[in-house]
């Protein structure tokens, strides 16, 4: 019998707190709409809800995939696959976290946030049990989860999600997810990681990544240059430079085989952090100051 502290440590690892950085997308809509000071509290609450919901889905997904994970070079060290976390505790905690997220969604953001969270959990469930085994569908499903996070931010801030906003978020999500798949496929254990990878080729994924990169750059440039004026136009125009540099940096890292964990890029790559911070400063100045 294992000590409770080891179980708790395994539970904390299985919740994957490093991946909570993805839920930062809930701040994108209120920031770009210029309502962040007023919507900060609700946005933080939505961020916490998505972290809770995501950790619940990670736990339940790892319970289901623990046998396959044991055959994977990296995933075999996950708490459930390695046996440091018991299945009953993981199931109970995962179910509890999902229940908390769903119960709190309506008080935090009303019916729209609840509907988006239900859609997010439904899409992640479909991905876990079916879509992750279908080429193209697996990429679209994961990218869709990112878009739903961004829509949740718009819902709690009560701001409309413009077509420009949705296009940039969708293309950026497609770029990140495709880069992740490309790195997985190019790795030594790529084909054993998920069955859908067998249908891909590295050249195909590289083409999709290039297409998404070009499309998101053009879309961002059109938004920055066509929908602002005066000093705001100058600041948004200047933000194109760090935006393109961030896209180029990500593509460079993927080509080096560093794209399998995109959240690690955001947390560890100093160049990417500088580009993204510069981008946020310029856009924020254009929205909130001038």
TrEMBL record:
Residues passing through the membrane, by range: 43-60, 80-106, 112-130, 151-177, 230-250, 270-289
InterPro entries assigned: UbiA_prenyltransferase (IPR000537), UbiA_sf (IPR044878)
Topological category with respect to the lipid bilayer: Multi-pass membrane protein
Protein's cellular compartments: Membrane
Enzyme Commission number(s) from the entry: 2.4.2.45
One GO MF term: glycosyltransferase activity
Keyword line: Glycosyltransferase, Membrane, Transferase, Transmembrane, Transmembrane helix
Enzyme class: transferase
Tree of life domain: Bacteria
NCBIfam families (alphabetical): PRK12324.1-4
Protein's name in the database: Decaprenyl-phosphate phosphoribosyltransferase
Organism: Lipingzhangella rawalii
């Amino acid at each position: 019998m294992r000590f409770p502290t080891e179980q708790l440590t395994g539970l904390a690892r299985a919740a994957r707190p490093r991946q909570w950085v993805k839920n930062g997308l809930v701040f994108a809509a209120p920031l770009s709409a210029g309502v962040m000071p007023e919507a900060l509290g609700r946005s933080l609450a939505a961020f916490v809800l998505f972290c809770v919901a995501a950790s619940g889905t990670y736990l339940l997904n790892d319970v289901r995939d623990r046998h396959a994970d044991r055959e994977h070079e990296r995933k075999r060290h996950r708490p459930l696959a390695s046996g440091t976390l018991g299945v009953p505790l993981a199931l109970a905690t995962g179910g509890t976290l999902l229940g908390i997220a769903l119960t709190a969604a309506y008080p935090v953001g009303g019916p729209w946030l609840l509907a988006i969270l239900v859609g997010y959990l439904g899409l992640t469930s479909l991905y876990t049990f079916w879509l992750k085994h279908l080429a193209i569908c697996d990429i679209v499903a994961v990218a869709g989860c990112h878009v739903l996070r961004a829509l949740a931010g718009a819902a709690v801030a009560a701001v409309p999600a413009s077509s420009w906003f949705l296009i940039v978020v969708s293309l950026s999500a497609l770029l990140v997810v495709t880069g992740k798949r490309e790195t997985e496929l190019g790795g030594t254990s790529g084909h054993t990681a998920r069955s859908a990878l067998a249908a891909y080729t590295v050249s195909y994924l590289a083409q999709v990544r290039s297409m998404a990169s070009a499309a998101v750059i053009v879309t961002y440039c059109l938004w920055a240059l066509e929908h602002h004026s005066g000093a705001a136009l100058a600041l948004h125009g200047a933000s194109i430079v760090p935006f393109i540099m961030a896209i180029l940096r990500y593509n460079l890292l993927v080509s080096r085989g560093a794209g399998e964990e995109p959240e690690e890029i955001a947390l560890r790559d100093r160049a990417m952090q500088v580009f993204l911070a510069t981008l946020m400063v310029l856009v924020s100045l254009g929205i909130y100051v001038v």
